Predict the structure of Pseudouridine synthase.
Amino acid sequence: MVVNRMRLDKFISKATELSRKESKKIMHAGEITVNDQVIKDPGVHVDIVNDDVMWAGEPLSVAAGNRYILLHKPEGFECTLKAKEYPIVTELISVPELGSLRIAGRLDVDTTGALLISDDGGWLHRVTSPKHEHAKVYELTLADAMDSAAQENAVKEVAEGILLEGDHEETKPAVLEFMDETHARLTLEQGKYHQVKRMMGYFGNRVTELHRASIGHISLDGLDKGDSRFLTEEEVAKF
């Protein structure tokens, strides 16, 4: 059950990343209103969904329950919690408490496509765990053209499983479909490190563009690069 009531000092701390001590200080200064009333008592409980909490006239909010988000990741963003060389994907999402969000099935900086983000750890595990068999569809562009014989061989080997360099077990059977000599679609039910690129490397080729079109039953459905949306209850329940 989602609990929607919270101490006001805790609410302010979560909404602003101020410490509880700093939150009490701005309350005592009369800077916080709840439903247009100045509140100085940090022990007052507020309804985080229905009460209007303001700091110096600016609205504050925190998350109620778990969030389940689909993001169309563009190039140039890292799937990490702290920025290193590039900005991080959560910077593209406008929700409170970004620090509690985690990513299911990370994508490389130069890879685009469907990314699922949530603060529900158990749900994220179900999305990514191979035993739950949620297929991920990738669209890829190859550096070198593959003729019909090479395509047929690759399709057959991928369907049986291949042993990638450095691994001790073969990949799970997957579906490889060629659109033409340099474009293909690969459907996987697992997520080894750099798996798509390594699989094409197994055949002496290199992936120059990679896009994840869908995860399980979730597809981007016209969502533009950099845009996101919350999943429906029905979509969440299917994982």
